[in-house]
Amino acid sequence: MTDVKTAIVTGSNSGIGLGIARSLAMEGHNVVLNSYTDNKDDHALAESISKAAGNKTIYISADLSKGDQSRSLVEKAAEEFGTVDILINNAGIQHVAPIEDFPADKWDAIIAINLSSAFHTTAAALPMMKKSGWGRIINIASAHGLTASPFKSAYIAAKHGIVGLSKTTALEMAEAKMNATCNAICPGYVLTPLVEGQIEDQMKAHKMSREEVLDKVMLTRQPTREFATVDQLGGTAVFLCSDNASQITGTTISIDGGWTAL
Ligand code: NAD
After folding, report:
1. Which residue of 12, 22, 148, 240 sits 20 to 30 Å from the alpha carbon of 52, by its own alpha carbon?
2. Residue 198: inside a domain, yes or no?
């Protein structure tokens, strides 16, 4: 650990975002947790991370379906810590339906939360990174940022979009010679509490063992037939924030058990 940086992880009161936030905290960085709720539990989670990591972690509520709240999340973090050095755009939602039945409000919400929020947070954070002369932006895309599946039109459009946004952000950072990088991490299936619940449901529905559900139902597109873990995502984010990764920019890093090799 060289330098203490300030990191925002959007959508980080559960799942992948929480895993990445914990990994950055354990490196000693200041961390801002976020979601749209503002419960006692959200702030208690931040306190428990601070205690375990010996860093400063705070929780800032912002509804990232709204552009102004996405920008003010970055501004509030900078008010607290002086600047924002690391921005992890992770918040995301999903809806599954054929295009002709896909509710327009779900399309709008997915594009707003999974894609437009990253445009707004990036726009707010870039001037701070330019000023300090260092920055890292990591966008959590998906294997569905590189491939498609039926019935997930909005999610796939948003995830392909965020891969493109990552490339443009990287090129603008390079033009500005600002010692900053932007990349997209593209996970396949990751073992989050949400996915654990789905495994249980599938075991009951198909009367199958856990192993059978993983092999025959859930991980058919993941050749290793294993989930990625939130710790592996956290470790990759920590690496991308290191000096060794300073020439990795404008690209995608797949953590997908071979999904995109097929
Ligand atoms: P999750 O549901 O556990 O986490 C999503 C987070 O986003 C939560 O903290 C939620 O509160 C937050 N969020 C939702 N709407 C929000 C809003 N309007 N404003 C602010 N925060 C909001 O899901 P996850 O599996 O951890 O997913 C995290 C990211 O990883 C998503 O972008 C998802 O698309 C991506 N991803 C997940 C997987 C997987 O297998 N779990 C695979 C590939 C990509």
Report:
1. 240
2. yes
For the chain, what is the total number of helices (H) and then of strands (E)? 9, 9
Write out residues with Cβ below 6 Å of ligand 1. 11-17, 35-36, 63-65, 90-93, 113-114, 140, 142, 187, 189-190, 192, 194-195
Tens-place pLDDT, residues 11-29: 999 999 999 999 999 999 9
Distance 10 CA to ligand 1 centre (A): 9
Tell me the residue range of the domain where 41 lies.
Answer: 6-189+228-261
pTM of the model: 0.97
Mean pLDDT, residues 237-243 taken together: 98
Q: Is 59 a catalytic residue?
A: no
Number of domains in the chain: 2
Distance (Å) from CA 224 to ligand 1 centroid: 23
Do residue 82 and residue 146 come from a single domain?
Answer: yes
All residues at 6 or more sequence positions from 25 whose CB lies less than 8 Å from its CB, including other chains: 31, 49, 50, 52, 53, 55, 57
62 lies in some domain = yes
Is the CB of residue 215 less than 8 Å from the CB of residue 225?
A: yes
pLDDT tens, residue by residue, 37-60: 999 999 999 999 999 999 999 999
